[in-house]
Amino acid sequence: MNMGFSKDFLWGGATAANQCEGAWNIDGKGDSICDHMRGGGVNTPRVFDMEILPDKYYPSHDAIDFYHHYKEDIAMLGEMGFKVFRLSIAWSRIFPKGNEEKPNEAGLAFYDNVFDECRKYGIKPLVTLSHFEMPFYLAKEYNGFSDKRVVDYFVHYATTVMERYKDKVSYWLTFNEINFATLPFGNQNVLGILHTDEKGNVVRSLDDEKMRYQALHNVFLASAKTVIEGRKINPSFQFGCMIAHVTMYPLTPNPEDILLVQQKDNHINNFCGDVQVKGEYPDFMIQYLKNKDIDVPYKEDAQLLKDGTVDFYTFSYYSSNCVTVDKAKEKTSGNVLGGVKNPYLQVSDWGWQIDPKGLRYVLNKLNDRYGVPLMIVENGLGAADQIDETGQVLDDYRIEYLKEHIKVMEEAINDGVKLIGYTMWGCIDLISAGTGEMKKRYGFIYVDRDNEGKGSLMRKKKKSFYWYKQVIASNGENYNR
């Protein structure tokens, strides 16, 4: 018996404040770590400046100016029939330095207005409290979550916004792609740790693994405390974790490849989910930390972690890669973390391996491991969209990508998976987190902006806009038309 999508399935799209809002220093907003990142490219890493330089381009400073276009943008999401809109709150818009006692009222008022617009169109906000948005001051002065005082600053911020929006927001995610902190590049994005070289330049590849895992533990505490305090504010709040699912297959049946996948899957994908959903450090991670002589107080904080578990599990899924012990195999790209090329898959313009069937595999795996409702909160195809001679953006390639992923979502539901929602990433074109580019577009809505920050900011509906509208209207039945 085919069950299909439930009648209350949450169809929508997702954005992040630093990638769409702009207005980086107006109405009392402070600078976030993202505001110090210049643009880059596929083969050009983004540069982090400790001081913002007047002659350099920082994509987040203007982005697509959602701050001044939110009414127009949300109206178009409403026209598509969105049931849910995932967005983040910029911490530095509420507390400019991050450690103030009193919030910035102008920042709070902005999100009041955004949530009121959502309500006008029957759209439920799904709010990420920290989407790589730490106030720069906390990163510079405290080295982010490596300092336990930042836990309290975060909880103060989180309780401030939850109290303010307790009647407007029901769904909350604490930290975006928290598991990136298991890897060196997560120092900056998730943890707010800025490792600098002898010249004072921030270098992403520099790492202090002991500091990183101690800081990640502090992030776990911040998340758990937020959940506990949030339920006091409104017992009907629903909280989720957010994991970047790095989907990996063994390249060969060599048992060494199989074991390597298992180890990487546990470390990168399962560790953070286990802490946030099950409320405890898994045995494999306890042993890993012991072997590395990394002291993390998971025993003394055990009850807090157990009391602050989340209600549902959300994740990003874009692609998959292969893993092998053979160092000579050709590498590929994919959501910051690459792997070995899979000969059975095609790749996007940015080298990401397109693997819809892998999503069914992941959904079943997560359903079996956690047994809580699941939501896909990032998925999509980044492409260099063009306006043709008739003035249209005919993004059939995006429609095809999304069709195949929605198809396997339905198959997973029929497998018994408890999937409750889907928010396609970058529902309106925004700047890329990885490269800072505008050229890498995901949206149903085109925004006239280029990689140098030039353009009219005019919004235009793509072909996929009308396709997704009928998908939502039919509750997923017409995805193949």
From TrEMBL:
Molecular function GO terms recorded: beta-glucosidase activity
One Gene Ontology biological process: carbohydrate catabolic process
Alphabetized UniProt keyword annotations: Glycosidase, Hydrolase
UniProt entry tagged with the keyword Hydrolase: yes
Record's GO cellular component terms: cytosol
Hydrolase is among the record's keywords: yes
Assigned protein family: Belongs to the glycosyl hydrolase 1 family.
PANTHER family linked: 6-PHOSPHO-BETA-GLUCOSIDASE (PTHR10353:SF296), GLYCOSYL HYDROLASE (PTHR10353)
Protein name, UniProt field: 6-phospho-beta-glucosidase
Organism: Enterococcus moraviensis ATCC BAA-383
